[in-house]
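Thanks for the sequence, V.! I ran DUF7769 domain-containing protein right away. Repeating your input here for the record:
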Amino acid sequence: MDNEELEVLDHMDEMDETSCFSETTTDSPEETETSALKASFATRDKKDLTNEQRMTIFHFLLKESNGGKVKRGLVPKAAQQFSVSQATIKRIWKQGKECEEKNLPVNVSSRKPTRVGLTTKEFDWSKITEIPLRRRTNIRSLAKALNIPKSTVHRQRLARTGELPTQIEVSKDLVREATEYLSCLRFFY
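Predicted structure:
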């Protein structure tokens, strides 16, 4: 074995002897509850908190608060205890207090599901009939006339009908009416 390998092994033996985790026992029920909460948050390797964890943080802050105000030094303590940033703790507290002020049930759940993902713009497809036939013969000219991207026209038409109809299929009725009108004119003149 090399000297470097021996040094690494010696260092690993030292780490085994002095554990990174302190093994203290507490008799108080509050400290037992706090250590259980800490254990559930310490192993958290996810980026986002679950709604249950957020509610636990809010109840912890509420229990430790004094008349609805967070005690000095409680936010950093909670941040360290629950392995999240102080900004997250403050955001959860603020969200819970806003619910209480409005006399609503406390809801500190994540707002992420409503704020992320694709946003779909509603568009009135009846405007297509108002566009002259020569400007809606293909997707490019139709998109330009509607002032929306070509991909949006394609995606929305595909979503609405299950297939992208060709412009000939869309304007068949207009062509049929025009043909009938012209044939009537020819017949009478």
